[in-house]
Structure formats: structure tokens, C-alpha cells
Fold this protein.
Amino acid sequence: MTDSTTASGTFDVTLDVNGIAYPVHIEQDRNLLSVIRGEVGLTGTKEGCDDCECGACMVLLDGRPVNSCSYLAVQAQGRAITTIEGVMTGDDLHPLQQALLDEGGVQCGFCTPGMIMSAMALLADNPSPSEEQVRIGLSGNLCRCTGYTRIVAAVQRAAAVPHA
Amino acid sequence: MTATTTAITTSPPRFVRADGPDKVTGSGRYTADLSLTGVLAAKFRYANIGHARIVRLDVTAARAMPGVFAVLTADDVPDVRFGPFVQDRTLFARDVVRFEGEIVAAVAAVNAVVAQRAVDAIVVEYEPLPVINDIEAALSVESALVHPDWQSYGAADALVRDRNDASFASITKGDVGAGMAAADHIIESRYVADGCHAVPIEPRAVVAQWEGNKVTIWTTTQVPFDARAGVCETLQLPTNRVRIIVPHLGGGFGGKCGFHYEAHIAALARVAKRPVRLVFTRREEFIAPDRRRESIVFNIETGVLDDGTITARRAWLAMDNGAYTADAAFFSQLAAMHTAGPYRIPNVQVEAHLVYTNHQPSGSVRAPTAPQACWALESHTDEVAAAVGIDPVEFRRRNAVDTGAVGPSGQTYGEIGLQQCIDLAAGGAGYGQPLPDDEAIGVAIGWWPSFSVPSGAYIKIDGDGAGQIITGAQECGTGSVMTLRDLAADELGMKPEDFELVYQDTAVAPYDMGATGSQTLLNNGRAVIAAAGQVAEQLKKLAADHLEAAEADIVLADGHAYVAGTPATTVSLVELAGIAAGGQLLIGHGSSTPAEAPPLAGSSCVGDLGMAAFVAPQFSCHAVRVKLDRDTGVARVLHVSAAHDSGIIINPIGAHGQVEGAVMMGIGQALSEGTTYDDQARQRNAALLEYKLQTCADAPPILVQFVEIFTPDAGPRGAKGLAEAPNIATAAAISNALAKLIGRPVRQLPMTAERVWNTIQGDAS
Amino acid sequence: MSFVIATTIAEAVAAMASGARPIAGGTDLVVGARHGKAALPQHLVAIDRIEALLVVHDTADGVTIGSGVSHSVLESHPLLASAYSGLADASALVGSPSTRNLGTIGGNIMNASPAMDTGAPLLVLGAQVELQSMRGSRRVPLSELWTGPGRTSAAPDELCVMVHIPTPLVRSGSAYLRLEYRRAMEIAVVGAAACVVLDEDGFVVSASVALTAVAPTIIMVDGLHSLAGANVPEAAVRVGVLAAGQATPISDVRASAQYRRHTVGVMARRAVEAAARRAAGDIVAIPLNRAIGIGAAS
């Protein structure tokens, strides 16, 4: 059991973001998104609605997709948080990133990081999804620019790329 | 343009956006990602009431709170009324509030929590005024006025205004009475479209910082120069002391056109003596900006002969202007054109009103007025076709405009591809094939002007051969700015990757109208080609000296200059750039020359803002297969076939992306996106759960086909605009599919499941 | 102010005895707090790391599901998909993949929204919840748990630890269907779950039907005993009429009362038809909404 009690309403918590431990001092009601963008200083994760309705804030928590806008940061301690900044291997783009570029699946780019995180979770569960499974897997990420066609194609292209 | 004959005309099949790596890695910075030392958080106090007189406004307690650095009201900024067509608004409400999202006061504080507490501590007392919530009622002479002082406001000369009517326009051609009298059938229809929203996924954000008497504003605008003009006008500053920088922009769709909150934040920062940052919530994004797609009421009447020939069209429409006039003043004439439609009609009489209400102001959202007008007109057109027993596609083939035809405002068209679009779209949808009895294909046609306006760019090539395109153009996601590299590279025999783009900064680049009116590639593309042409001339001159050849014989290709006919006599452009660095620098500048408006014959226009003559008109036809659950009214789009004439396509991947995205937006407008108001004129669904965008799971396959016709006096290489046109005909085509399945049209947009079900019930009774 | 991460049920109920409120995925709690529905509680105990709450057990008299089991586990669990299909139908429709990943069956039940998707299938399947506190544990049938929108008969110190569902009868099947305006990211406009038992000749032995989002709580449709002996199409039609008649929906931004009343009848009829197909041994894919097409269209 981890028991944190505080009179001031703030907690000292260590968050593991992309394999790096970040000690942060935060209020109980702070959502994970604001801590990632603020204290941790990674702005690739976006805020589009603060309401679990757009998916721009998607991160992975122990490999599973989470709307970080509606998840308490204090609850993420001890879990592995992956953001868009943790997706590349060294200087190499992840196959999903490359496929989005090649298929023209990026326009304004604001939904893109969240879309990539959802797609990563999907492909981890199901390495060769059908088109319908891709569409359901990405259904929590709104995109206003692309009509989704090229994003779905990119996920299917990435799924076909063998990688470690 | 001479460029069209000298450019390499094959576009590369693969197009990787220059900004793509920033966007897929999360390293690209958007406005809300910026931070400055000492930055404060801004929050607004909104009216939260539809129409009321302010009887008390007291900010004393808010100003006294610890951590609060500035609290501003109308008394703290210059007393300037502004507006692009009618100067009817102020930065902060003065005496009266006219819609729920009107700003009464602004706060800058150490953080957003303290700022919100200060906002809540502002005391405002209201005396309610009559709420004007209905467009048609507002036009009656008995209606209360949204702006009792409307006559005293400054306004564009061409505007025709009267009380709550902020802009009246009419288009008249021939004798509509005689045309109706000659008809075998007269079909009358009424349609009502609700307002809806642009909904870029990135909410607005603004950061302002003063240094001395100069201010830099980072903002989420689609139109940086327009935003600069707004700041200069309202805060009374010269343009050279206001710098607008747009970081990556997370979508716009027109919603981020115009001048919004840059002046409020700059004013806060000046008083607070600290940088200030505003980031909108999604709810604010819904209720506050003066950029909502307008609700429109349509009454349309068409006279037709038994053989399907249209003899006359009469239409009356009233649009919701909202509480203040943004750029919507030109919508009256534009909507009138779209309600007349791309048809050969000898006798036309269309009247359009832009009506003040206590709603959020309307403004340009992707092809303003056109999707709604196309929905109404094309639904009506299927009613007309049914009345004479002609298949809707055949009816359009007979009546739609074609090359050399005269349109409803008296414009004679050059070579256009509308008829080919109809054939391609219908063919691509399998129109005419047997379908299950709960499926149908609806077809609709649309059109849209190209906007030919001034626009500028510079190009420089430094001593190492690396190029920069410094452009006033704005990238909102479409890829238009990204495509500029290809144009410059083709002109100079270089690779797109040889260029970096410097854009979205009013202090470094020449003017451009912004990411609005599908105009970026059309106009700035020409400017970039012109600038590259100047650099090409310089390179050729250098190469001629270096290779001891005639300048006219120098060819630029593959990163080299060579003498025509003797490719071995060559010098690399990098070497030439090095030579230039020691002498005359490689710098080019270019600007686009606006095309002349096409002439109109035989028509007269009241309230003429230049929208009746379409420069380089774009045409489209969408054929959409829809499945209907008759028990619930829920409809689903199974397939979309879209065919477009947008001239020559320069960037195929980008062009497909524009059509696919716009079609999805159109499906949302058709089925699920519409703003509803309560009886106090407050939005009832200002959240993404209740204002439903289509998801990835809803998206159907979209077949995209282009009719590529070289269009003179338009964009580079004979291109026309594209970003707005594909948003126009989708909802209309869905309507026509539904009408086939139900037996009558759904007369309200969006055609929600409940409205569809109600229409089915009406049919049964 | 406190935040406890519990790893055992004992730790969790001890924290609740001293006033802490449980949080699992937080999908309702955190969003609700932001919307001003209810402030985030001062004292929280995170229960998402209690292994004992993450189990799905096939028992002699049915299935026991830990309250911390997520919708994504429920939607893909082979036992639930085959024998408790209505629950799998519902779990697969909740929110988005991330909501299903974080959201739990216990959270869905205890949040007591009349629009919750898992409520109606759990009701027709005869589910009971096991509530535990320092004072002991008790089982409560779901029909006695919900007392109003957002309200339950559980005491503030009681933690929902398990959901027990009895073994379905032979030749029975269940299904859940909801009216949705888009295929994902939806909340039920209305919904209906049915559990149908057939005799060897395919006639109805018994049916139970529950309705979503047409009353202050999920409600059971009354008067279905008369369906015994009816053929399935006739039973489905009669259920549809009864459902529409017993619904007491409100009008709001999502739909009018009249439209809800009509469509809940349609959903109930189709749920009975699908449950009967499953009872007869047909494979009907999960979730039923996507198996039978648009907006739950047949």
C-alpha cells in the first residue's frame, strides 16, 4: 500500500515518463496531461477538449491507451507512461510515424500524437488488424482534417512493416 | 503565367510534408505549447446571457486579489468600434451584452486557477432585454433591435442595411414573373439549416509579450495579417509595432479566420507588464468566437417545363448574422449565388438577408453558406426532377452549366468540367445499379469561386546552396504552404528538400490574405514562382558567365546549370551560390496579380460585394450511398463518390486529403452537427459529446476523382482553389438519398435521426 | 487530503472506513468533478491495483467478476462472450478504446447512471453485487441497488468488490442493444437488454428485458410472464410495445421523450430477437450493435 496524506493538498510523486523518472510535486486533482505538459515539460501530448471526447491527450499507461486529460497524475505513480516523445528509437521514426508521413495521414497534426498512441496500443494487441478493427481502435481520436482515410491506411501499412 | 509552360509538369507521386516530422514526433510547437518567463494566465468573463443591459460592473474585488495583475473592461482600452464590414462591436461589452459569449472583462493572473477566481469575483448585474432568437421574426418591423444605433455605425458603402438586416443582397436576371408564367410546373420548397461549428481540434490560444512599445503575439490565427490589422485598429498601433507569429496551427476550417482575442491579450500584457497567455477550453471554443457557420432559412421556387427545362427560379433566404457582423456581410450575395445554383436559368430573382440575432456571430467556415444552400437547392432540385418524372442525374445533366454556358448571374463560363464531374461521380457510385430497399444513392452538384488576391513571397539562396522561401502564406493543415517548395524547386531545377520555409510571421514576410478562401496555392503559389523566376534569372546570368555561354541557352535542372544541347558543359547550383555569396546575393521577390472579375451580362445586383462573378469557378458532384434504419431514423453513409473540377491538381496526395476531410465534415453537417439554442439564446450542446463529429468508425470509403482542366487566369499551372469546394455537396447528396428512401425530403439540417424519423412519420400519416 | 494506493481489499475498505472514496479508472469521477457534478473527494483510495478485484472466475453456480475488471477485458472474454453475451455487447460499446481500458464494471455499476450500458444486461442476467466494508460483506441484487440517478443503496464505506451472475439456463441467450447516432464515442440515447429462454421447439419459455436511459434508473419491463409459449417474432413485438409503454423518458438535447419512447420499443424488440437467436444456438457477433448494422438497424 502507498499512503500519502498531506495537509497542504499536494503530493510528492515520481512519474516514469518514457523511461525517465520525474519527481514532481503536485495537487491531488491534477490531471496527468497537465503534469506531462507542465512539470515534465513534454508538449507533444495535446489538449483538445479536457473531456475524454477528442483523444488528443492520449498516452500509454503500461502500454494501454489512456486519455491523460481525465486521469489523475497521482494515480500514475509506479506505472510506465509513454508519450509521443517516447515513440522513436534513437533517431529512427517508428513505423507508424513513417507510414503517416508516407500515406499523407498528417494535416494540421494536432490529433496526430494521440492518434499514434492509440494506434500503438492497437497494434500491440493485434499486430494485423482488419480495416474495421483499425477504425474501432482509432474511434476515440477525432480528426477534423483528413476524413481518417489516410490515417487508417497508414496504420495498416505500419502493421505490415516487420519491426522489433 | 509563363511558369506553366516552363515548369516540370509531372508532380512527384510521393509527397512528404516539410512539417510532417515535427508533427509525427511531437516536437512541433503549437501556440499553447509556448511558455515565456513570467507568463500570466488569461481568463475572460463572458456575458452568459443572451441580451441584457449592464447596470453594474465592478471589478474592484477582482483587482484586489493576490496574484491578479490586470483586470480590463471597456473603460481600459481605446473606445474603438470595429468590424470588417460594419463597425458594430467593441473589444469589451459597453453598456449592453448581445450574446452569451460576449466578453465583459478580462483577467491576467499568476495561473489559470487564480485567474478564474478573479473572473468569478467580478460583479456584473444585468437588466434583461428582449432575446432575439428567431431569424424570421427578427426581420419583422415589430421586432426589437439588436443594435438600436445601427444607423450610426460605420459600414462598407456597398452594404444595404435596415434595422436587424445587416446586409441585404439580390440578384435579378430576366423576368422571373414571366418565366414562372411560362412554366408547366412550379415547385415551392422550404428548408431550414441550423448553424454549426468549424471545430478545429486545437482550441484557440494567444500569447502576447511587450518589449518597449512593440508587441509580439503568438496566436492560432489562420489570417496573421488580418489579426495584425485588428490589433492595430483596436489598440491604435502602427503595423510595424505589432508582430504576429503563428506557430504550428492545429486546424482552422475558417473558424480561426478573422481577428479574435489577440488585442485582448496584448492589452492585458501591457497593463500587467508581463507576458500573458490565453488557452481556450472546448466550451469557450464553441460559444465565444465570431466564426460559427450560419443558420439559414430558405424558400425556393422553381418553374419548369414538362421536358425538364427550368424557366425561372425565385428564392428568399434569411441568414443568422448573430449579434455582430464579422465577415458575414458578403454572405448575402454569396448565399444568393449558391441558392440560384450552377444552372442555366433564364429568369432569376434571389433575395438574401443577413439578420442580427442574439446568437454567436457567424463568420467564414469552410465554404461559408455553400453547404447549406447546396443542401437546400439540391434537395429542391430533386423535388423538381420528380415533378417532371426525370431521373435526378439526367435532370442535372440537362440543366447544369457547361463550357460556354451562361450562369444565373449572367457570367459566361470558359472551359469547365461540371458535366464530367456528374458523369464521374455517378459512375463511381454505381448509380443506377439495383440496391437493397434500405439503401439509396443521392447526387448533388456544387460550385465555388476561386479568390484571386494579392500575395507575396521572397526566396533566397545562401552561399551553401540552401534555399529559403519566406512567405506571408499561412499553413492551417492543408499542405498548401508545404507545396510551395515543389513550385520553387521546379522553377530552379532544385529539390523540394533544398528549401526550408519561413512562414506565418508578419514581421519577416510580405502580405498574404491567410489560410482562407482556398487561396494559398492559387495566389502565393504564383508569388513563389515569380520570386523563384527572379532567382533563376540570376543563376542563369552567373552560369552564363561561368560557362561562357549565352544566358538564353542556360537550363536549370537536377541541381545544375548547363548549356542547352551540351549537358557536359555544366556547373552545380551550389557552386553558383558560392559565387553569388561573394557578390550579388541570390534574392527573389514575387507577388501575385489578382485576376480581373469576369463580366456579367443581363443581371443586376443589389448589395453587390463582388460575389456574383466567380473567378475560376470550381465545380463538383458528389454521389453518396446511404443506408437507413427506418424504425429509428438512423442513417449511415456507406460510400461517397466525389468528382471535382479544381483545375490542374498540383499535389495529388494533398488534394485527395482535402476532399476526404471535407467530405467527412460534410457528413457530420448532414447527420450530426448542429447547434441548438435554448429560449434564452444559449447553446445547448457546446461540448463534443453533444455536438457530434464523425469518428473514424463512421467514415466510409471515399472515391475521389479530379477533372483536370487547365484554367487560365487562375492559379499556378492552371490550378484553381480546392480546400472549400469538397465541403459543399456532401450533405445535399445525403439528403437526396434519404428523400429517395423516405419518399420526401428532410427539411431541416442536420438531418438527425429524430428529424428523419419524424419525416418518416409524417409520410405515413 | 489523502491518496492511498491499495493493493488488498482490506486496505481499501479500511481507507473507506475512514472516509476515503474509491477510484478505479476515474473516468466518471474525474470528468464529473471538472463539470462541477461533484467535487473530487478529499480522500481517495485507488483500487485499480488490487489483484483480487481483477479476476473473472467461472464458478459452479455462475460467473464472478471482480469489480475492477475493465470493459476491454469483459468485451473480449470468451466465457462472457458465449454465455453472458449481453454483458459483452454492452462492454464493447462503452465510450472509446481508452474508456474501455480504464473504465470498470464496478465503476459503471456504482456510478448508477440510468444511461450506463452494462446495467441493463446485468439486470436481465440476474446479477448481484457483493459489497464489502469493515463491517462485513453482503450481496445485493442489482434491482435493489439503484435508487435514482447517481444514487445507490450502498453505504459510503461499502466497496463493490464482486459481481455475481448466475449460470444461464439451458437454451437461453442474452443481448444488449442501444440507439446510437454514431458508431463510437457514444452514450446510449436509449438501450435495451433481453434474456430469453426457449423450449426445444423454439417457443419462448421466459424473457426478461431491461431498459436504458428511459427512467431515473435502469428499469425492468413488467408483465413478461404472459410471453410463455409465444413464438419469438410475436414475443419480440409484444415486448417492444410493453417497453415503449413503460418507459418514462425525458426530453433533452439528445432526444425528445416521444422519440425515446418509440426507439426504446424498437431496441427492446430487436434485443429479444437477437437474444432468442443466441438461445437457439446462432452465433451473433459481439457487439450486437455492430453485428446488425447502423444505429442498431436490422
Notes: The first strand of chain C starts at residue 2 and ends at 5.
